[in-house]
From TrEMBL:
Its main location: mitochondrion. The keyword 4Fe-4S does not apply. Keywords: Autophagy, Mitochondrion, Transit peptide. This is Protein NipSnap 2. SUPFAM superfamilies: Dimeric alpha+beta barrel. Pfam families: NIPSNAP. InterPro entries: Dimeric_a/b-barrel, NIPSNAP, NipSnap_domain. Residues 228-325 form the NIPSNAP domain. It comes from Crenichthys baileyi.
C-alpha cells in the first residue's frame, strides 16, 4: 500500500523524537546541522547590505566615479578571498569525481548475478488457472541445466495489489546469461504455448532487471509455511549510494529472526527503485519482529536518515505458490 513519507511511521514507534509542537527532531547528539543557521543569518545580512548598496537612494548619493571604485574594491576583495571564504562554501557544493558506477560500488563484485522481477496482474476469474499453468511450466525451466537461470520465488499478492502474481528469477552470469535464456526459450515450443495461454489471463504485466546489494544475504530456498513481504522504495535520484551506506549498517538489526531474504535495486525498468524481501511465519510474527527492532539502539537513526531519501513506497504481503522454492 502506498504511503506518503511525510506521514510514515514505523511499527511500534515514531520515526524520530517529536516535540509538543509537532516538529520532528534529530536523534540525540545529531545537532551538528543546527550550527548552519547563524551562518545563514549572517549571509542574509551581507546580501541585504550589498543589495542596499545598489538601491536608487545609494546610487544617487554616490557619483559615477565613486560607485565604480566601490564596486571594483568589492570585486577585488571577493576575488582575493574566494577560495577560502566561508560565505562561498555555503552555496557551492564540491563534487568528488567517481570512476565507478553506483551499481559497481553496491554489488558483490566477485559475482555477477542478475535478477528479474515480474509483476503480472491477472484477471480475477483466471487466477487459479494461471497458478496451475505456472506450476506446470516454470519448475521445469528452473530444474533444466540447459537454462542458466533459477526461479527464486513465485507468489500471489495477499495484501496490496489484488489478483497479482510476482515472480523472481536469478541469472548466474549476468546479462549474457539472460540473453542466452531468452534465445533458448524462443525455441521452446512448450514455453511458447505457455506464453500464448498466459496472455489470455492477464490484464497487464511489467518487469524490472535488478542487482543485489552486497550486504544482503543471497536468497536461498527455505521451508514453510511463511508469508513474504516485498517492500518497494522509490528513491530520490542520486541517493542510492547514501541508502546503501545506511542499510549496510542497518541490516544487522534485521537478522535475528532470519527474516531478511534479499535486497535488490533496479537497473532497467523503474529506476532508483529498491526492493527488500522479508519472510515471517504469519502477520503477528511480522508485527512482533518489526516492533522489537525499535528497542535496539541505533535503529531509529537509520529510519530518521533514510526516510528523506524516499519519494514513495509500497508494501505487498505475499503467499508463495506450490512452485516456489521459497516456501
Amino acid at each position: 500500500m502506498r504511503q506518503n513519507v511525510n506521514e510514515l511511521k514505523g511499527s511500534g514507534g515514531l520515526l524520530c523524537r517529536q516535540h509538543r509542537g509537532g516538529a520532528l527532531s534529530p536523534p540525540r547528539g545529531q545537532t551538528r546541522s543546527l550550527t548552519l543557521f547563524p551562518k545563514l543569518k549572517m549571509a542574509t545580512g551581507v546580501l541585504q547590505r550589498v543589495r542596499g548598496g545598489f538601491s536608487p537612494a545609494k546610487s544617487r548619493a554616490l557619483s559615477a566615479g565613486n560607485l565604480s571604485l566601490w564596486v571594483r574594491g568589492l570585486s577585488t576583495s571577493s576575488n582575493r578571498n574566494r577560495e577560502d571564504s566561508w560565505f562561498r562554501s555555503l552555496f557551492v557544493r564540491k563534487v568528488d569525481p567517481r570512476k565507478d558506477a553506483h551499481s559497481t560500488l553496491l554489488t558483490k563484485n566477485e559475482e555477477s548475478n542478475l535478477y528479474k522481477i515480474q509483476f503480472h496482474n491477472v484477471k480475477p476469474e483466471c487466477l487459479d488457472a494461471y497458478n496451475k499453468l505456472c506450476e506446470d511450466v516454470l519448475p521445469s525451466i528452473h530444474a533444466d541445466k540447459y537454462y542458466p537461470c533459477e526461479l527464486v520465488g513465485t507468489w500471489n499478492t495477499w495484501y496490496g495489489e489484488q489478483d497479482q502474481a510476482v515472480h523472481l528469477w536469478r541469472y548466474r552470469g549476468g546479462y549474457p546469461a539472460l540473453t542466452e535464456v531468452m534465445n533458448k526459450l524462443r525455441q521452446n515450443k512448450e514455453f511458447t504455448a505457455y506464453r500464448k495461454e498466459r496472455g489470455k489471463m492477464l490484464l497487464s504485466r511489467r518487469n524490472q532487471l535488478l542487482l543485489e546489494f552486497s550486504f544482503w544475504n543471497e536468497p536461498v530456498p527455505r521451508d514453510g509455511p511463511n508469508i513474504y513481504e516485498l517492500r518497494s522504495y522509490q528513491l530520490r535520484p542520486g541517493t542510492m549510494i547514501e541508502w546503501g551506506n545506511y542499510w549496510a549498517r542497518a541490516i544487522r538489526y534485521r537478522q535475528r529472526n532470519r527474516e531478511a531474504v534479499g535486497g535488490f535495486f533496479s537497473q532497467i525498468g523503474d529506476l532508483y527503485m529498491v526492493h527488500h524481501l522479508w519472510a515471517y511465519k504469519d502477520l503477528q510474527s511480522r508485527e512482533d519482529t518489526r516492533n522489537a527492532v525499535w528497542q535496539q539502539e541505533g535503529w531509529h537513526e537509520v529510519v530518521y536518515y533514510t526516510v528523506p531519501l524516499i519519494q514513495h513506497m509500497d508494501s505487498r504481503v505475499m503467499i508463495p505458490t506450490k512452485a516456489s522454492p521459497l516456501q
